[in-house]
Amino acid sequence: MAHCQEAQKIQPGKKAKIKNVKSTKPKAAAARVASAQSLLTQVVRKGRFQRVGETITVRTGDTLELRCRGKPVQWTVPSYLEEDHEGRLKTVEHEKYGVLTLVNTTGADTGEFTCFPLFCEDTDCRREYSKAAKVFVFFPDPQELFVPSSDYYEVVQLRTNWPTVLPCQVTSPEAKVTLHREYPPSEVPVDGSEISFDVKKGFTIHRPRPHHAGEVYCVASLGNLRQSSIKYMLIYVNYPRAVPAPVIQASSSSLTAGDNLRVTCSVMGEQDVAIDITWDYPGQQIGRPQYTQDSVTPAGANTQQSQSVLLVDEVRDVDQGTYTCTAHNLQGSKSASTTVKVTPKASPKPKAKKP
């Protein structure tokens, strides 16, 4: 489902708070925000319109008609309609507004509809995200409480400290939805803090932890109807907070041919978060094998040090140059370099001849 920047909302009788906007005309800025609110209306019947709120409900089978003020405008719709709407979806541009029409609606059409006014210079147009207007539309289906899916199950990756959404999307805002674990069979507590529910998107696990992993599903109830969603296989990944920052140090920056060299690359990171270290060094150009000593050791509360030591025995002139280690984790990679100089071994002085 497409996402966009939500238009700022103003409650009647309250002043809008505009943050980080450089303007010498605050009244004009507030007027622009209010204008964005009024871009989108629903055509209730011919000649009658009403402004939309965050959500609206349209009976399945009825026609959804939205009007967005501006020229030109661009629409985004639920992913199901983007992929296959069988000619039921139509958008038309008029002189001062655009119209989206969806006929023969079904519960599968439930989702967010967004209108973007476009700013055009000649033939180059771009969306004005700050003026976007959106509405979430429910199409209650008496037979389908959940938006239909072609999948039997979905794999969801839980990342440390990254909110994760389980998209148990219902077709009716009146449905009561609960979250359940497959094994051992139990209902998962939803306290609004660790896990919360939003009827427009499903359940959110705000700070995933290892105990959240496993197979879960949602149950929706409305009247005498009770249905289960698809299964969600939750896989926990200990995800790093940041890209690793390696520190590199050579045993010496200047060596004599024949000496042994040790180049150490160290990275501090979170406990149990894997970090891979790779090397680039001058001897690679002639096929010198890479010998390393790798280790991971605790370095305090919930932290560890990953270390790789590159060993270069009996250096030669080809070993002179830049040594680079690159640390990789799931967030990305970062490199550190140092330069080593190799000087020729001094020739032994000839022995003095005896007279």
UniProtKB/TrEMBL annotation:
InterPro entries: Ig-like_dom, Ig-like_dom_sf, Ig-like_fold, Ig_sub, Ig_sub2, PDGFRL. SUPFAM superfamilies: Immunoglobulin. Pfam families: Ig_3, VEGFR-1-like_Ig-like. SMART domains: IG, IGc2. Residues 240-343 form the Ig-like domain. Residues 12-21 have a biased composition (Basic residues). Residues 1-21, 333-355 are annotated as: Disordered. Forms a complex composed of PDGFRL, TNK2 and GRB2. This is Platelet-derived growth factor receptor-like protein. It comes from Knipowitschia caucasica.
